[in-house]
């Protein structure tokens, strides 16, 4: 983490779906409750005051204006198409995948799903410019990055190199690989949290290692807090929470082979007001 730089609260951006409504009609409608400007550069992009919440506004629920979601490390795309189903054809999903071959698999998954609001980007999520106006509407990011896969049975380790087998935690080469993965996961999570309009970031792994789970979350907490995020509690009724290695780890969720399930980990960061201090 570098030096702290104070930034002003960011405005909210909204793209009008001109297939359903004109930009002028949206401006007229929104002007009843908010100050609305047109973006200088992007056609049909509107700029609203920081903190404007339109989630339940009929313009959003009727699909006339769009909210975006990024699936940061997407292939083979199981969660991408799940997101599409949850969004029920509304909004748009940007599915980012680094590996060219896996991007093809992702494309295949997306095609089979019948979803038509998923855009595939074959590239490095770390290189996605969070200040690019085309990402100004991104409200949610799912980050399910490469991990050791130590929580899942070997026959399902489809995204690891063939030489990788199920982890043995005592093995020195495994622990050096886990530390490398952990370093990438920290970078990717910091990047996800730094998108200007993002309100919800889900970080998940299928690892049972603390280094890829609690340690990653703990390391980004100063940045997350400075940006106004808090850890929320996904599935509060679930009994197995994060390992008690920092205050707040009870918000995290773990499943474990001991539960008769594969090992999985989820952290959910939520903020109500965008803007704050960027440290990335
Ligand atoms: N979420 C997926 C699903 O449920 O089907 C599984 C994702 S898998 C755990 C992680 C993916 O992230 C791999 O396909 C890997 O190639 C990709 N990946 C790794 N580093 C990346 C990066 N820097 N940018 C984008 N994708 C990356």
TrEMBL record:
Catalytic activity: a cytidine in 25S rRNA + S-adenosyl-L-methionine = a 5-methylcytidine in 25S rRNA + S-adenosyl-L-homocysteine + H(+)
Keyword Ribosomal protein on entry: no
Coiled coil residues, start to end: none
Chain residues that bind S-adenosyl-L-methionine: 73-79, 97, 124, 144
Biological process, per Gene Ontology: RNA methylation
Keywords, alphabetical: Methyltransferase, RNA-binding, S-adenosyl-L-methionine, Transferase
The keyword Manganese appears for this protein: no
Top-level division of the source organism's lineage: Eukaryota
GO molecular function: RNA binding; RNA methyltransferase activity
Active-site residues annotated for this sequence: 206 (nucleophile)
UniProt record similarity statement: Belongs to the class I-like SAM-binding methyltransferase superfamily. RsmB/NOP family.
Name of the featured protein: SAM-dependent MTase RsmB/NOP-type domain-containing protein
Parent-record interval covered: 165 to 444 of 479
């Amino acid at each position: 983490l570098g030096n702290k730089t104070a930034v002003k609260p960011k405005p909210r951006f909204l793209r009008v779906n001109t297939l359903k409504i004109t930009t002028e009609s949206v401006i007229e409608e929104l002007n009843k409750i908010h100050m609305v400007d047109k973006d200088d550069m992007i056609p049909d992009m509107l700029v609203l005051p920081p903190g404007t919440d339109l989630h339940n506004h009929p313009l959003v629920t009727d699909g006339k204006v769009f909210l975006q979601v990024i699936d940061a490390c997407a292939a083979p795309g199981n969660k991408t198409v799940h997101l599409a189903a949850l969004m029920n054809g509304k909004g748009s999903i940007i599915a980012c995948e680094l590996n060219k071959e896996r991007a093809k698999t992702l494309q295949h998954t997306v095609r089979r799903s019948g979803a038509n609001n998923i855009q595939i980007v074959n590239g490095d999520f770390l290189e996605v410019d969070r200040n690019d106006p085309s990402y100004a509407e991104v409200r949610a990011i799912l980050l399910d990055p490469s991990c050791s896969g130590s929580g899942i049975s070997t026959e399902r380790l489809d995204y690891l190199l063939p030489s990788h087998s199920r982890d043995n935690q005592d093995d020195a080469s495994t622990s050096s690989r886990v530390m490398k993965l952990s370093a990438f996961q920290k970078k990717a999570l910091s990047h996800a949290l730094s998108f200007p309009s993002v309100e919800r970031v889900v970080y998940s792994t299928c690892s049972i290692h603390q280094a890829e789970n609690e340690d990653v979350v703990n390391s980004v907490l100063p940045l997350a807090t400075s940006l106004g995020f808090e850890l929320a509690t996904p599935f509060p009724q679930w009994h197995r929470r994060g390992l008690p290695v920092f205050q707040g780890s009870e918000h995290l969720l773990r499943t474990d082979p001991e539960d008769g399930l594969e090992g999985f980990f989820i952290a959910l960061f939520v903020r109500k007001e965008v803007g704050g201090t960027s440290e990335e």
